[in-house]
């Protein structure tokens, strides 16, 4: 199935949510490439903040020291192809070795549940829509766990991806990550601040047994103005 992005409206805002290893990032990246959207991986934002706090020797607890560190962080964006990369010091984004270290994997979920952390990052995330417009993209696709419910509640299309837990755990292992997706999902879904859940108007797609291209084609067919 081939979908044509040429007939889409001038600017599209797409929210893609789901649990760990549900295919959010790979789907969003492919959609961005296909439709000339800017891709924003919000998980990397919380990983960057977690890394910065761990470098200061801070645990994921709401303390005055943590508040000071988060307050002093300066976020900026570096565009690489269709990717929006977060920078927290200068103009160089952190690498995967830093963002996906075992230490960050273990602490990113509790760190991202802290209200002051989410509030600081939320403002930056919403600003990426304007970044995409200014850089001439045809839209923005942002993935995470609360995009359709909190960050971009007025998105043109909201998607919630899910997949069989065993297949998701295998995907995680193939990525080289060590965290257990079941534990991560439970923490993210039960946190008091911005819990992970599908927006009321989200389209739920189970990608356990369909290809990445099939998922992307389904999403393109939902975009305003699509002739699919």
Give the key terms:
7 strands; Rossmann fold; globular; alpha/beta; 228 residues
How does the SSE layout of this entry go?
Elements: E1 12-18, H1 24-35, E2 37-41, H2 42-55, H3 64-72, E3 76-80, E4 83-87, H4 96-99, H5 102-112, H6 115-134, E5 139-144, H7 147-151, E6 157-162, H8 165-174, H9 181-190, E7 203-206, H10 212-222
Parallel strand pairs: 1-5, 1-6, 2-4, 2-5, 6-7
Antiparallel strand pairs: 3-4
Helix pairs in contact: 1-10, 2-5, 2-6
What does this structure look like?
This protein starts with 11 loop residues before the first strand and ends in a 6-residue tail after the last helix. A seven-stranded mixed β-sheet has the order 3-4-2-5-1-6-7, sandwiched between helices. α1 (24-35) packs across α10 (212-222), α2 crosses α5 and α2 (42-55) packs across α6 (115-134). It is an alpha/beta fold. It has one domain (12-222): P-loop containing nucleotide triphosphate hydrolases (Rossmann fold, 3-Layer(aba) Sandwich). Helix content is 46%, strand content 17%.
User: What share of residues are in beta strands?
Assistant: 15-25%
Provide the CATH topology: Rossmann fold
User: Got a strand count?
Assistant: 7
Order of helices and strands: EHEHHEEHHHEHEHHEH
Low-confidence stretches: none
Largest sheet: 7 strands, mixed
State the shape.
globular
Could you tell me how far the N terminus lies from the C terminus, measured between alpha carbons in angstroms? Answer: 9 Å
The spatial strand order of the largest sheet comes to 3-4-2-5-1-6-7
Summed up, the helix count is 10
